[in-house]
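#struct-help
A.M.: can someone run this one for me? Single chain, 245 residues.
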Amino acid sequence: MTSVKRTGILLLGLGLLFVLVGTPACQKKAAESVAAAQPQKPSNEFEGTVKMALGKYLYLPTAQGFDIVLQGFDAATLVGKDIRVKGELLLDKPSIFRADTVDVKGASGAYTNAYTRTQDLAVDDFLDVKARDAYPVLTITGVNKPEEWENQGKGKIFGKLQEAAVKEGGTETPVTCIVLTDEKGKEAGKIIVDKFSEFSRYYLKKLRLFDKFWFYLNIKDSVDKKVRARTKELFHADVQFAGLF
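D.P.: on it. Structure tokens below:
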């Protein structure tokens, strides 16, 4: 056998060896890439310290992006405690995590059950991003322009909460108002809040470091024209949601 043939056979053998060794590695790398591209199943268990809660809603920093719901339970009793919560993320309500059980960690490190769900989940006041699209932005330019809010039904507006007193029949009644400001930062009007949904109160508490929000309103009766001119109180409304957008 000539040296040329021997060299050719040697090169062919090395090539086959490279293919045999390299193929599994490439296949493994490709499989890892495919796996990484696949959507990960949401976790059904979280552990951490409860930072804030209101009503049945609970905020856990280790479950960022989720609002944990403990149906039929006062979640505020768990504030400051280390917990382990198991449940399920609702696909039709992307930010809602339904808690099925909650265990509290004791001083010894052992967990004790504090909550087990016995009721169907009811979050009628939940307002997801898609539902918020049904609330058009209100543009209010003056107290004497009721057409800017009347017959709208729903609307959202940017403002700041303020405790105030409204005179009714010679007596002052404490109320909460949404204060609107103009481009120069001057007060342009007030919206009297008759009711907050539990979900909106939870979010206002969750976003306590901020002082201005987008309020999603169910618009109700207008304030009397003469009163509007004197107090800048425009109309009554129920707050369905409050957030940063």
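A.M.: thanks! The mean pLDDT is 85.
D.P.: also worth noting: The first strand starts at residue 45 and ends at 49.
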